[in-house]
Write a structure and sequence with these properties.
289 residues; Rossmann fold; binds NADP nicotinamide-adenine-dinucleotide phosphate; single chain; 17% strand; alpha/beta; two-stranded parallel sheet; seven-stranded parallel beta sheet
């Protein structure tokens, strides 16, 4: 039995599908079990992984645990220790490529994500462990630009020349499934990136190409971008850290890793392929996506 935290999210849903497709028994823990909407055959249990006592019973009979940094919050070490006491043998943590950066330079920490702690808890758990260090999710572009592209052909955003290595969430899930189901990745930190470095402006162009539209990137001054993102409801400390990161990275590019291809035996999906899988996010109204 494999226990997943974060199963109802961006990475979790394709991971559930891949594990089920491989014939694995899957148990998913969710704070909103009744609304989880997971496929038949998945055992959904109510619990909050950030409060490990609420998932103690769900660990019974579990051989491998997927540790999701957003779902476990500050409880990664406690949950890993509890898993060990309950007889779990393996732990696979989702983490991030920037996990070794100074914490003040990791914007997601300001939104509560604990990638560093998830990796550390897995590596120090005494269990067979793997850390999946993921790059920028291609899916972030829905929140960044989806509403603007649904509404017109102009994308207003800061720093057109900041580069990312956008990765399809299905590739992260496929490597996670491999780590949970085989011994190949035990004791490893795996760098999961998309196959190409693309700037913000490049990504907008690719979205337009796939949609058959000519999109225009209109650069916002950093302070205007902060105001706009805060007005859209994002927490100000997160937004300030994010725009500061853009300022540090502008004009530079990281090389992609080929770990996805090494593990899966096929190349990572391109950003264009990801867009083709998500065109509705840039064309339809939100309730139809
Ligand atoms: N976005 C990126 O570019 C990127 C890159 C590298 C690493 N990461 C890391 O990956 C994680 C995001 O992955 P994702 O997109 O799969 O996550 P997600 O879809 O936002 O959330 C996964 C699940 O976690 C639970 N959850 C969400 N917010 C929560 C909260 N505030 N407190 C407690 N539980 C919560 C929910 O499950 P239930 O409601 O069912 O309980 C949700 O379905 C973050 O930790 C991030 O740091 C992201």
């Amino acid at each position: 039995m494999i226990l997943l935290t974060g199963a109802t999210g961006t990475v979790g849903r394709p991971l559930v599908d891949l594990l089920r497709g491989a014939g694995a028994e899957v148990r998913a823990v969710s704070r909103e079990a009744a609304a989880a909407g997971l496929p038949a055959g998945v055992e959904v249990v109510a619990g909050d992984p950030s409060r490990p006592d609420t998932v103690a019973e769900a660990l019974d009979g579990v051989t491998a645990l997927f540790l999701h940094p957003r779902a476990v919050g500050d409880a990664a070490t406690g949950l890993a220790a509890l898993a060990r006491r309950r007889g779990v043998r393996r732990i696979v943590a989702l983490s991030a490529t920037n996990v070794d950066d100074d914490p003040s330079e990791q914007p997601s920490r300001f939104a509560g994500d604990r990638n560093r702690e998830a990796e550390k808890a897995a590596a120090g758990s005494g269990l067979e462990w793997t850390s999946l260090r993921a790059s920028f999710f291609a899916a972030n572009t829905i929140a960044m630009w989806g509403a603007q592209i649904r509404g017109g052909d102009v994308v207003r955003y800061a720093y057109p020349d900041v580069s990312e290595l956008p990765i399809h969430q299905r590739d992260i899930a496929a490597v996670a499934a491999h780590a949970l189901l085989t011994d190949d990745l035990v004791g490893r930190r795996v760098e999961l990136t998309g196959p190409q470095s693309l700037t913000h402006a490049d990504m907008v162009t690719v979205i337009g190409d796939v949609l058959g539209r000519s999109l225009r990137y209109e650069e916002l001054a950093p302070a205007d971008a902060v105001d706009r993102l805060v007005a859209h409801g994002l927490p100000e400390p997160f937004v300030v850290a994010l725009v500061a990161r853009y300022g540090r990275l502008a004009g530079t590019a990281q090389p992609p890793s080929n770990d996805v291809e090494k593990v899966l035996g096929r190349p990572a999906a391109t950003f264009a392929q990801w867009v083709a899988d998500h065109t509705a996010a840039f064309t339809d109204q939100p309730e139809r996506r």
